[in-house]
Amino acid sequence: MLVMTGTGTGVGKTITTAAIAALAAAGGQRVAVLKPAQTGVRPDEPGDLQDVVRLAGPDVTTRELRRYPDPLSPEAAARRSGLPTLDPGEIAQAASDLDTAHDLTLIEGAGGLLVRFDSAGASLADVAWSLGSLVIIVAEAGLGTLNATALTAEVAGKRGLTVAGVIIGAWPAEPDLAALSNLEDLPVAAGAPLLGVLPAGLGQASREDFLAAARAGLSPWFGGEFDPELFAGCASAGK
Asked: Looking at residue 236, what is its pLDDT?
C-alpha cells in the first residue's frame, strides 16, 4: 500500500498515481486506487479516477469516498456544500478493504500531506500512519520545490511516517537551471531517493504511449527502468 501525496496542487500527483498503477497492472498485479476526497468537480463531471482508468486501463479498481464541487480543501469544500466530511478511520477502512483483494493499493490525497479532511484537522498523514503505509512525495521540478519537499518530508518523519521516495510529476520539455539542479537536490530535501521523473503533458498520451513513458520514467522499484544518474546526465547534456 502506498500513500501518494504532493508538495501542493497541480504537481502531477494523479498522473504519477496512474503511471504506477499502469506499470503494476501491466506486470500482472491487481491494482486499486482510492481517492478519499475529490474536490472542484461536480457529480456529473469526470474526476481524477476517470483519468487513472483512461491512462492505466479498465482493470484498475477505483473508489472515491467523497466528492465536493468547490475547488477547496476537503474540509472547506465540505463546509460550503453541507456534505459530510471524512475521517481517517473511514479512509483507512476503505483502503484496507481494497487491499485484501488487490496486490497494490494506491491512496491519492488531495493536495499536500496536511490538507485537512475535517474540522479536527485530520489529514492524509493520519491515514498513512494508521495504515503503516509508505509515502511517495510527488514534487514540482523547478524553483521553490526544495522547501516544499523538505517540509513535507520533515512532517512525515515527525508523524512517524516513512518516505519511500520522491517523483517529479511534470518534467518540462526545456528544463531551466533550477530544475536541472533539483535532480540532485530533491533526494536530499526528501531524505529519500529520486524514484522517477515523468514528462509534462503525459496525461494527453495514448494508453500505449503512457505505459511506455511510465516504464521509462519510473524506478525499477515500481517495475520501470528509470536511472536517476543517467537521466541527470542526459538532461544536462540536452541543456
From this structure: 83
Cβ atoms of 21 and 31 closer than 8 Å? yes
How far is residue 125's CA from residue 158's CA, in Å, rounded to a whole number? 10
Question: Given a cut of 80, is residue 225 above it in pLDDT?
Answer: yes
Q: Is 35 a catalytic residue?
A: yes
Residue 12 has pLDDT above 90, yes or no: yes
pLDDT of residue 38: 94
Going by the annotation, the residues of the binding site for substrate are: 39
Give the number of residues written for the chain: 239
pLDDT tens, position by position, 79-117: 999 999 998 899 999 999 999 999 999 999 988 999 999
Annotated binding-site ranges: 10-15, 39, 51, 108-111, 199-201
Give the strand pairing for 162-171 and 31-39. Answer: unpaired
